[in-house]
Each structure stands twice: as C-alpha cells, then as structure tokens.
Amino acid sequence: MTQTIKASDVRSNWSQLLNKVFSGEIEVVVEKSGIPVAAIVSTQDYQKLQQIKQKRDFALISEIRSAFKDQTPEQIEKGVQESIQAARTENKRASS
Questions:
Q1: What is the mean pLDDT of residues 69-75?
Q2: 0.90 cut: is pTM over it?
C-alpha cells in the first residue's frame, strides 16, 4: 500500500516509517508543499527498479546501434557535429 505523507510528518515518524517500509507494509510518497518530491521504498523494490532501468538503457543502446549500423564512425561524428551546430544556431535565434 502506498501512503502520501508530508515531509514534516516523515521527519517526525522516520523510524516507524522505515520499519513499515522494510517489512513491506507500505511505500511512502513524500510531499513538500503538496508536491511529490521523493519516495521511500524497500531495498528489494529499489533493486527491481534499477534492473528495469538497466534493461531499458540496454534496449535504447541496441535501438541506437541498429539505427546507425550502416554508417561509419566518421559519418556518425559528422552527423553529430551538424546536429550540434544546428541546435546552437537555433538557440541563438531563439535568444535574440
């Protein structure tokens, strides 16, 4: 179960909240001025999240490799430099 708790209440009840999170009773969303700013989850859930992120990162790298598989490193570098220059030109126009 997920509970949303004000940051000030989290500070006041830190030890109890950690015990409940550790035992798997709750997950906590911490709010500051009504805005969610953090979450407190068990280390087991955190490790699962890290695995998901790592799989997503590998999938993204594989997708990028596939998109550029027929280009030489020099062609890729040239494209990167052209994109950087185009972005800088656009930023200059936008700030003028």
A1: 91
A2: no
